[in-house]
Amino acid sequence: MSSKNDTQIIFFIATLVAIGPMATDLYLPALPALTQAFDTGHSRVQLTLSLFFIGFAIGQLIYGPLSDRFGRKPVLLIGLIIFVISSAAATFANSIESLIVIRLFQALGGCAGPVLGRAMVRDLYDPQEGGRMLSHIASAMALAPAVAPIIGGFLTALYGWEANFWFLLAYGLLALAVLVFVLPETIRRKNPDATKIGHLVKNYRTLIQHQRWRLYTLICSFIFAGLFAFLSGSSFVLIEYLGVTEQHYGFLFATIVAGYMIGSQMSARLSTRYRAFTLIRLGCWLGVIAGAVMLLLSLLGTHSVTNIIAPQFFFMMAVGMVLPLALAGALAPFPHMAGTASALLGTTQMIIAAAHGGLVGYLYTGTPTVMASGIAFAGLAAFLAMQRLKYVSHHTAPAY
User: Which candidate, 339, 348, 354, 325, places its Cα nearest to that of 79?
Assistant: First the structure.
């Protein structure tokens, strides 16, 4: 495939994959405003985030096998239509309960983009090249969480929280246009048995019993959980506790996303010179150190914007380095069921991250300590999973 085609594929798949961060990060500055608009508490508003993650997890189990059976494009089309309809419905929500339910459906539709975007990369590229391409896509799609909170902050301040969902509606329509008019079908051979219950059970059992798939998935899940801990707690910590405005919150969020972009670009460039596992190990070391520094600063009582954003910047560098390469490592042994493997990985990743983020939101005490503890724990867990993979690789065949 030519470099020009590679660039086009990166851009258009990134548009689909970015639906996830757009739908979560855009309205983060609006979370405190939602507590006032619906006269409810932090934990209840946080459910609009946690239930979204759960819907994101469940939907992937459906889309993955369906795409292996019928192709990526038709299944993506269904998911995007559900996302567009739900985004429109969210603008008319008249209670926090209705918004929570709508967000669940929005996730059930929106998750088609990320899970099938990853599968499309696996369709088109071999494992090593796929890891490099996923790193480039991660860097390109990092623009979404970088600009989304900035846009969301201004939309919330100028037009109210509903404007965020009007924006998501427009983005969903754009993604639909890209899918229908630009992206080709990427699956080379459809699997007519992919949706049969017995076949599904067999495939999922094969994945779960595959030790390296489990360990790569845990690395992805725990490093991602650190990001979700920040998503769950940062708007309350920065806006309510430290007095940052909604608009300035967006710029601070863009700062830590810059760390993610740097990390993903580092992994893309260095993967041509070093083994992917070497870079994953380096990223996990960075993540555990960054999380520990944030927690230590919080326990010392030195609460400030800098003492939150600076460690999180380096933690996000770790996420950018680790996530694309670990995803590619998990999918590499399963070209015949890339959609199913991507779906189960994504579901596991979302369940662990959503539970972790939800716990951070539930335990929030009005200071940064709970959030910092959640980030530090996630970094440590990803590090331990990496160490276990290193041990397994040393006693069998090397990791890719």
Answer: 339
How far is 292 from 379, CA to CA, in rounded Å?
8
Residue 199 CA to its chain's centroid (Å): 28
Phi-psi region of 122 (alpha: psi -120 to 50; beta: other; left: phi over 0): alpha
Element (H, E) at 342: helix 338-363
Q: What are the structural domains, with CATH classification, of the chain? A: 3-182+189-395 (1.20.1250.20)
Q: What is the residue-wise DSSP string for 59-95?
A: HHHHHHHHHHHH-HHHHHHHHHHHHHHHHHHHTT--S
Q: 80-94, pLDDT tens digit by residue? A: 999 999 999 999 988
What residues have CB less than 8 Å from 27, skipping those under 6 apart? Answer: 152, 156, 161, 164, 165
> Model pTM?
0.73
Q: How far is CA 40 from CA 44, 163, 399, in A?
A: 7, 20, 49
CB 21, CB 111: distance < 8 Å? no
* Residue-level pLDDT at 135: 66
CA gap 380, 332 in Å, rounded: 25
- Token look-up 């929106």 returns 110
Sign of the CA dihedral running 27, 30, 32, 36: negative
Q: Which residue has the higher pLDDT, 325 or 274?
A: 325
Per-residue tokens: 339 = 């959609």
Render pLDDT for 282-336 as a digit per residue (tens, 0 to 9). Answer: 999 999 999 999 999 999 988 899 999 999 999 999 999 998 889 888 887 787 7
Burial class (CB in 10 A: 0-12, 13-18, 19+), 28: buried
